[in-house]
Amino acid sequence: MELNELSIKLASFETEGVSFESFLIANEGEQDVLQVIVDGNDELPIFVTQTEEQLLCISYLFAENEVQADMRNELNETLLRLNVPIPLSAFAKIDDKYAIFGALSVNSSFDDITHELVTLADNAIDALEAVTIYLND
Amino acid sequence: MSILKKLFTAVRGGAREAGQAIVDANGIRIFEQEIADAQNALQRAKKSLTEVMAKEMQTKRKISALDASIAEHEAYAGQALEKGNEALALEIAEKIGDFEAEKAEHEEVLAGFSNHIVQLKQQVKDAEKSIKENQRQLTMVKTTESVQQATMAVNSTLNTNSSSMTSARESLERIKQRQQDRQDQLGAAKQLEADTNGDDLKAKMAEAGIGDTNPKSADILARIKAKQNS
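Above: the input entities. Below: the structure tokens describing the complete assembly.
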């Protein structure tokens, strides 16, 4: 599914009691990115990128400099341990930002994609809540 | 070196700055070329394989035809001997010898084809494996590249969007506040609905035994009994 098609479909769709807002980030000639806001939580947008094989859904959680320096190792260890139990999503680091992401096959159905988006949005909030103890005040 | 190892080394080496290509475009082109070459080799191997398999079948058919001829002529030779025609029998035997020589030649060719088929099948397998492996690695490289490009696009959006400059802590607080607000609104809406329907007041009155209360079955029974007695 093309990202702009996904954007149009999302606009008039509601699932699991949740609605979506989305818009394409202009990135002429380069990788297209769709910014999706789930349930009005524009603090934690999900960025959807399509590659040849995968649909990557990424939400940025916090920057490295927000982590209490002496707790960084513990945080990294915790995130690694949480990777398996957390449903459908995994933690990652992109540049200096910690992120949570899910990867889907490009052949996924629209229902699969919305389920992924809703789950990722919930996971992002839960994850942020769980790791605030490691962050600077 | 596998691509994953290269990526690992690059990340450790600090190539994680946005925009810095971990694997150069040249590397990707080489990979794509390797995949294309392997796919060509695969096509060639498959084409040869079908050709050789067809030839193998033809040769097998020729051998069984010769077997049939040999059996046939052996019967003829037997008949000639029965009729005491030794000279004819000898001539037939010579013919059988020719057939057998021809069969031996074909059998040699057949063995060559069979060997060739085994080799080609192995080549097809190898090519398929190599293509799959290279494609997997190429996917990794391309995904890395896509994520880098996407990150740049995202960063340029985030930087122009002041709300995203807030810390994760503040973001979380806002989200929690919004969720709380929503719950409060929902609660208030329910309260309002109950008030306008008068459900609340009715419930309170009923509790106090005021207003229309449902007649109790005991009362009804008492009324019926009273009627019977009168």
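Note for the figure: The interface with chain A takes residues 16-18, 139, 142-143, 146-147, 149-155, 157-158, 163-164, 166-172, 174-176, 178 of chain B (CB under 8 Å).
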